[in-house]
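Fold it.
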Amino acid sequence: MAKQKTGSAKHSADYRARQEAQAKKLGIEKVFFNMPEGIKAAMAAEIERHGYDQVQELWQDLALSWIAQDPEERTRRLERPDAPAFYISPKLARQFEEASLAELKRNPGDEIQAPEFSTDADLRLTEPPRCPRLAFLPKPPR
């Protein structure tokens, strides 16, 4: 025998069903993800600073502004200049150094040597290099 619901339980179930139906009609779905505490605290501060009442308003505005950007701008913003593409461990650096020295022993004469300058005058350029596309600009005064 099925257990009968009380009046308030029926009302709560009906309310949840109406909310789910309305969300489905509007195309709204719940999204859950984990977030570090520091980012959550920073987002809470931004919510208060910009006058948002709910965090979902901020997330929705962020998503809409992200979508509105052109693809090149999104790509630029996703680049992480502080995150190197790869990490060279000390072990890998030693292996590379050993392999380089072994290669130089097999093929002597391939070493790159810095040029020797006799005076500081050899280091100075007589005229700064110019870009051919900027040839229409006047030469700088001496």
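The mean pLDDT is 79.
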